[in-house]
Structure formats: structure tokens, C-alpha cells
Design a protein that fits this description.
Blueprint (H helix, E strand, L loop, with lengths): L2 H17 L2 H10 L1 H21 L3 E10 L20 H13 L2 H10 L4 E4 L8 E2 L6 E8 L6 E7 L4 E8 L1 H4 L10 E5 L3 E4 L2 E7 L9 E6 L2 H12 E5 L6 E8 L2 H58 L5 H37 L15 H20 L8 H83 L7 E15 L2 H26 L6 H7 L4 E6 L16 H16 L7 E6 L6 H13 L5 E6 L6 H4 L9 H6 L7 H4 E4 L2 E7 L8 H5 L2 H13 L2 E6 L7 H4 L6 E7 L8 H10 L5 E8 L4
Helix pairs in contact: 3-12, 5-7, 5-8, 8-11, 9-11, 10-11, 14-15
Length: 772
């Protein structure tokens, strides 16, 4: 792997780590497993304890199907709103409003005598009991305001009797003078108990499962209870907008109690609907009877008016007379037309005969007179014979002359008969016209009489139809009286859904479990958010792209320098691994001069430099460590050696070159390949001196004599001296100490990388704990 490939892989791993490191996250949580365990135990324990005091509420539901019929003003069972497209939704909405009314719920609670609440004394936690859990049932007749300040204790005395003790509030007890109300009083089942706080009766419950013999009774305001049930517990809604099915849901802690409430709610709803319908039907019967009496009198008067009108106008039936007059008028018109046509035909025949036309036959189709028809037929026959004879004989033939004489005689006879028939027709026409005028006059009077009679008959018909309609409705309304016909069908009676328990125990424990996990996670992340120190390698990788060359284990001994015989220690192994990593990461480039720096004081520069020198010298390499931290020169003491008279400051500030490198070298005991050079005894301007020609000569000479040169420099975050040494170094090691270095100080090494102020910058994680 080349240097560039290594640095690119480090940057890539950093970018991936910034997204999400699941393994590191679990490792962080695993370190605090005791904290997680304690939190889970506390939260689950609190949840189990809380469940003992929290009563679970269940959903008790019932389904109703509303019928198509709806009660109306006639109470006949007919749906007068069937033509209304909104009648179904209106009926459903009306039913929902009634079922969710406080008044209806109050009737339910009163019917079930739920004003009283029963508990068992000394029970932990306190729990209400109801129904089969009680050996008796309390039927409350009346409660007075004092009841809400009264607590009863009922003790069973046997199968037939019980005793009651009352306890009042102090403020009310002073005003109560009935001393007999205190202490235990014995009563038999079924006896009506009358007290200043109310009137009630206890009846035995044969199907009870209770083993207790003493019970506490508290009274509650039924109006407040009804409002609470309607507002907080009861829900009535439509399951499907296209259907008339209503779902009734009640949240109740005691399933038996919830089922009783819903079943009673439906029963009372149906009963009240029946009573309202029955009362309406009775009112309708009375109303219809009154109207029938009035219509009977009015109908008799109208019938008398019709009879009187027909008598005055001599009418049997206007319609029949009008039809008869019309038929007769048509008949006379037809006869008049036939007679006029026949008269015209006779006139035409007469004209032809008088004109001397003796060669044409006479048409007798429209002639009605039998005598005239006979004469015409005889005339036509003789004329035909004449025309036949003319073909064979001359005009002067005796036979021809005889036929002509006969034709002339028949012509005169026909003319005479025509005159008589025409006169007869004129008389008939005159008679027909007279009769037709008479019928026309009567016909003209028919519409007026018909209109007058129609007005009277219309009033008669309306009253007759109304009378019959009311008779029918009266019978229907009478049948409705006393007959209960609910406008709904119960699809499902009240049933408890035990899976709908609220709060759900499983969910409650799950939430407690999640909270038990969330608290440690939150604390850990909050601690990380508030933390300003570098804790581990991940913090470095998140803040900078400079690779981490390795981690130095925490030094558990009181020694600051690795000695012979300690090569197997964790500290020695850390430096050995550091040396190998340095060779591996920068294998393509000769690394001879290594600069060791940090952001602030106390991050282990001198400790690392001295021990890194020992680690490099142990591989037979000749190593030199330079002490160039002018503000905190501790290298020579860390190596356990004595300072010489001269150091780097003396070398750089000399004027006659009398001090040589050999005068500066300090051999490290027990390490023949390790040497050190101290800072010196003179003041030194690091920026000026490190950039001098003498410093350049010194570094070149040291490079020729030593395999590795380690520079223990000042912190880079505050001094510019260290920057002046960059041109002499092949690698810059930036020290970061766990739980000591600030996260913000990592910006310094990131700036070094971005602006390339040093060659091959690397980070060393110091003082890392070996315990996980």
C-alpha cells in the first residue's frame, strides 16, 4: 500500500464513519451494561407496581340495525319520508343523538342503581366490585344530598339478614341528631330502608361468587355520572355510511357492568321510542275521529246539493245526455247531407230529361224512392233495347217507332216522379234542420250545466276520498296502539373485547422496557454531547482526516521510560506497534526525522519521544532525540540523564564555532544506540534560530550520523516555533491524550493537513485505557 493509498483509505473510512458506525455504537452501550440493567430493573419494577393500582378499561360494544320504517305524524307505520334521499342519514343521526343523550344515560344508571359503588375493605389495591361479585343487589329509590357525604359498611349476618353501619363527615355529623343511624342496624333482605340520606332496598343475589362478608358502599351523583359516561366513555357511530348500522362502544373497567349498561341503554331506547310512538298513535286516533265526524256532516250537505241540481235541470247524467245530443246531432247531419245529395241528383236527372237528351242512360245510385228507381230502371232498359234495334232496322220500322213512343211515355212518368220526390225531400230537409237546431241549443247548455255540476261533484269527491282515507288511517292507527314494534334490530348484544384493554399490560410493560433503555441511552448521548474531551479514536476520526497511527496504552507503573526486560509490557508493545505502523504507512518514503508535537501542554510529547526513541534504538538503529520545547524542556530528565553544559541553544548562538555536535550529545544509559541533545542554557528565539543557516547545517550533519531523529517540540497550537521546524522533518506526529485533549484542539491538526504545513501528519492516541 502506497502512502497516497493509505491516506485515501483513511479519509474514506472517516467519511463512512461519519454516516453511522453501528458496531461502535453497540460497543459504547456495552461498556455501560450495568447502567442499562439497573435502569431496566427500576422501570419494569415501577411498571409492575403501577399495574397493581391501574384498573384496565375494556371496550364493550353492541351493534344495532335501524329499520327502514320511521315514526311519523300518522303513526301508521308508513315511511312518509321514503322519497327523501336524506331520510336514511337523518334517521341514523337522530338515533345517535338520542343514544348519546345525558337523559337516556341517566335513566340507564338509575335503572341499574349504579349510584352506589361497592368495595371490599382492606383490599389492596382498592377495587370496585359489581354484579356477580356481590351477594346482594342494592335497589336505590331516592338519594338525598347527604348520601354523597355518607359511607356505609354492610356486613352479612346470615342468608336472610345483614347489618348496616353509617359514617358521616364531621361537618355533617354535628347537625345530625338521629343517633339510631350510628352503629350497626340489622335488616332483612327485601326490607325498604329509609334513612336521612336516602331510600333503598337490598335483595339477595343467588348467582354471586363473592367470598367476602363485609362491603363498603359509597354513593355518587347520578347526574355527574351520566355526563361523565356520555362525554368520556360512550361512543356511538356509524360503521358504514351506506348502511344503517350503528355501533355502540363503552369503555368500562368492569366488563359485566359495561355489558349491563349497554344492554339497558338499548332496552330503554327501544322502550322510550315505543312509548312515544304509542302516545302519538292515541293522539292520531282521537284527531282522526274528530275529522271523520266533521267530514260526515259536510259530505251529507254536498250530496243534497247534487240531487237538487239534477232535479232542477232534469238531468239524469250530464255526460250521458251530452253524448246522446252529440250522437243525434251527428245523425241528423248525416241524414241532411244524404237528402241534399239526393235532391241534387234528382235535379240533375230532371235537367237531363228536360234537355231532350234521349240517348243517355240515367244513374239511379243516389235515388232512394223505389217507384222512381223502378221507372228509371225501365227507362234505361228500353233505351238499351232501342240502341240494339237501331243496328238492324231503320228508323221507320214499326218496332222502332213503338219503342220510341214507350220511351217518351216513360220519360214523362220519370219527370213526374222526380217532381214528387223532390218535393218530399225538401220537406224532409226542412224537418231535419228544425230538429238539428233544437239539439244544438240543448248542446250549448250542456257545458254550463256540466261545469256547475262538476264543481259540486268535485267537492263531493274530495270529501268522499278524504273520508275513506281517514277511515283507513284510523284502523291502522288503532292497530298501532298497544303493539310494540321497535325501529331497530339488535345485531350483536353487548360483548366485551378483552383484547382492547386500556392501558394494555403488554404495551405498558413494553413502554417501561423502552423507557428503561431510553434513559441510559439518553444519559450516554447527553454525556457525549456535553463532553469536550477526546475520549477515543472515533472522536479523532470524526473531527479530522489525519490518520491515527496508533494508540499508546495507559502507563500503570511509576516509570516513564521503558527499560530492558519490560519488552512484553502493554506499554512496550504499544510503542513497538507504533514503530511498525510508521514503517508500514510511510514505507515508500524514507522517514528519518520525526517531529512530535501537540496542541497544549501535558499531552505526552516528551513521554512519547523518549519511549519512541527507546523502541527505535532497540532495533539496532542509531537514534537521536532533540529537546526543542523551550518552554517545558523535560526530555533529558525523562531519559534519566544529566544535562550537559551545552545544548542546541548554545550551538546555534555561538559566534566562533567552538561547540561541536559531539559536545551536545548525551548517551542514554543502557541504550548504546540512543542519544539525546538538550535545549541548552541560553535563551533562544525559536522562530529566528530554527530558520537560521546554522540550524540547517546542524540538521544535515545529524541526518548523516543518525538513522532516526526525533524532535520533541513545543505545542503547535500556541507557538510558531514548531512551524519553523517543518522543513527539517519527514513526518509530524500529533499527540492526543485520552480524556485530556480538547475536541476543539483537533482543528489544529486538521488545519495542518488542509494547508499542508507539515509532511505526512499523523495522530498518536495517548493514555488509552486497556479496560473495556
Amino acid at each position: 500500500m502506497t502512502e497516497k493509498e493509505y491516506f485515501d483509505s483513511q479519509l474514506s473510512s472517516k467519511e463512512n464513519g461519519e454516516n453511522f458506525d453501528l458496531k461502535a455504537l453497540f460497543a459504547k452501550y456495552l461498556k455501560s451494561w450495568k447502567f442499562f440493567l439497573i435502569s431496566l430493573v427500576i422501570f419494569l419494577g415501577l411498571a409492575i407496581l403501577a399495574l397493581q393500582f391501574i384498573n384496565t378499561s375494556y371496550n364493550v360494544s353492541s351493534k344495532l340495525l335501524l329499520k327502514n320504517e320511521t315514526s311519523n305524524i300518522d303513526a301508521s307505520g308508513n315511511n312518509l319520508g321514503n322519497n327523501n334521499p336524506f331520510s336514511n342519514s337523518e334517521r341514523v343521526n337522530n338515533a345517535i343523538e338520542v343514544l348519546t343523550s345525558v337523559n337516556l344515560m341517566r335513566s340507564v344508571l338509575d335503572t341499574l342503581s349504579l349510584q352506589s359503588r361497592f368495595t371490599v375493605p382492606d383490599a389492596f389495591p382498592p377495587k370496585e366490585i359489581y354484579g356477580s361479585e356481590l351477594p346482594f343487589k342494592m335497589v336505590v329509590d331516592t338519594l338525598f344530598p347527604l348520601a354523597y357525604e355518607t359511607t356505609l359498611t354492610i356486613k352479612l349476618e346470615g342468608k336472610e339478614s345483614f347489618s348496616i353501619s353509617e359514617e358521616f363527615e364531621d361537618s355533617l355529623e354535628e347537625n345530625n341528631t338521629a343517633s339510631s343511624d350510628y352503629g350497626y342496624n340489622t335488616y332483612n333482605y327485601g326490607y325498604k330502608i329509609e334513612k336521612p340520606y336516602g331510600v333503598f332496598t337490598l335483595v339477595p343475589n343467588e348467582n354471586n361468587t363473592s367470598k367476602a362478608s363485609q362491603f363498603i358502599v359509597d354513593f355518587r351523583d347520578i347526574d355527574e355520572m351520566a355526563q361523565d359516561y356520555v362525554k368520556k366513555a360512550l361512543s356511538v357511530y356509524v360503521i358504514n355510511k351506506d348502511a344503517s348500522v350503528i355501533n355502540i362502544v363503552l369503555k368500562e373497567k368492569i366488563s359485566e357492568k359495561g355489558e349491563d349498561i349497554i344492554n339497558t341503554l338499548v332496552e330503554i331506547y327501544g322502550l322510550k321510542s315505543y312509548l312515544a310512538t304509542n302516545a302519538l298513535a292515541l293522539n292520531n286516533v282521537q284527531f282522526i275521529d274528530d275529522r271523520l265526524n266533521t267530514l260526515s256532516r259536510e259530505l251529507s250537505e254536498v250530496e243534497l246539493n247534487v240531487a237538487q241540481f239534477k232535479t232542477d235541470n232534469e238531468l239524469a247524467s250530464v255526460e250521458f245526455d251530452a253524448n246522446s245530443f252529440a250522437e243525434q246531432e251527428i245523425d241528423y247531419g248525416r241524414k241532411l247531407a244524404d237528402s241534399e245529395i239526393e235532391l241534387k241528383v234528382l235535379s240533375a236527372i230532371e235537367r237531363n230529361l228536360k234537355s231532350g237528351d234521349s240517348e243517355s242512360t240515367i244513374n239511379s245510385l243516389s235515388v232512394t224512392s223505389p217507384n222512381l228507381i223502378y221507372l228509371i230502371d225501365s227507362y234505361n232498359k228500353l233505351l238499351i233495347d232501342k240502341k240494339s234495334l237501331q243496328r238492324t232496322v231503320p228508323e221507320n220500322n214499326p218496332r222502332m217507332i213503338d219503342i220510341k213512343d214507350q220511351l217518351e211515355q216513360l220519360r214523362r212518368n220519370v219527370l213526374g216522379s222526380l217532381s214528387t220526390s223532390k218535393q218530399s225531400l225538401r220537406t224532409i230537409i226542412s224537418s231535419i234542420k228544425g230538429r238539428s237546431d233544437q239539439f244544438a241549443e240543448k248542446k250549448q247548455r250542456i257545458p254550463t250545466m256540466q261545469r256547475q255540476l262538476l264543481e259540486i261533484s268535485r267537492e263531493q269527491g274530495i270529501k268522499e276520498n278524504l273520508f275513506l282515507y281517514l277511515l283507513q288511517k284510523r284502523e291502522e292507527a288503532a292497530l298501532m296502539v298497544g303493539v310494540r314494534n321497535d325501529n331497530f334490530t339488535i345485531i350483536d348484544s353487548a360483548i366485551t373485547d378483552f383484547e382492547s384493554g386500556s392501558p394494555s399490560k403488554k404495551l405498558f410493560l413494553l413502554v417501561a422496557f423502552l423507557m428503561g433503555l431510553a434513559l441510559p441511552i439518553g444519559v450516554i448521548h447527553l454525556r457525549d454531547m456535553l463532553n469536550t474531551k477526546v475520549k477515543d479514536k472515533n472522536d479523532i476520526e470524526k473531527k479530522t482526516g489525519v490518520p491515527v497511527i496508533g494508540e499508546i496504552a495507559h502507563n500503570t507503573s511509576d516509570k516513564n521510560l521503558i527499560e530492558k526486560g519490560e519488552e512484553v509490557s502493554a506499554l512496550a508493545q504499544s510503542f513497538r506497534m507504533m514503530r511498525m505502523n510508521l514503517d508500514f504507512m510511510l514505507s515508500k518514503k524514507k522517514v528519518q526525522t520525526v517531529l512530535v508535537t501537540s496542541a497544549i501542554k501535558g499531552e505526552g510529547k516528551t513521554f512519547f519521544s523518549s519511549n519512541m526513541g527507546v523502541a527505535l534504538a532497540s532495533s539496532s538503529a542509531k537514534v537521536l532525540i532533540l529537546e526543542l520545547d523551550k518552554h517545558n524542556p523535560e526530555l533529558i530528565e525523562a531519559l534519566g540523564e544529566t544535562r550537559k553544559e551545552y545544548g542546541i541553544s548554545n550551538y546555534l548562538n555561538q559566534s566562533h564555532n567552538t561547540i561541536t555536535v559531539n559536545d551536545l550529545l548525551i548517551p542514554v544509559s543502557n541504550n548504546p544506540n540512543l542519544f539525546a541533545i538538550g535545549l541548552g542554557s541560553e535563551n533562544i528565539d525559536g522562530l529566528e534560530s530554527f530558520n537560521s543557516n546554522r540550524m540547517n547545517i546542524l540538521m544535515n550533519q545529524l541526518r548523516n550520523e543518525f538513522d532516526y531523529i526525533i524532535i520533541d517540540s513545543a505545542p503547535i497550537g500556541k507557538l510558531a516555533d514548531t512551524l519553523a521546524l517543518s522543513k527539517y522533518t519527514d513526518c509530524c506526529l500529533y499527540m492526543v491524550r485520552s480524556n485530556h485533549s480538547n475536541l476543539e484542539d483537533l482543528n489544529v491538526i486538521e488545519e495542518v493537513r488542509v494547508h499542508k504545513k507539515f509532511k505526512n501528519p499523523l495522530v498518536v492516541m495517548n493514555d488509552v485505557s486497556t479496560t473495556k
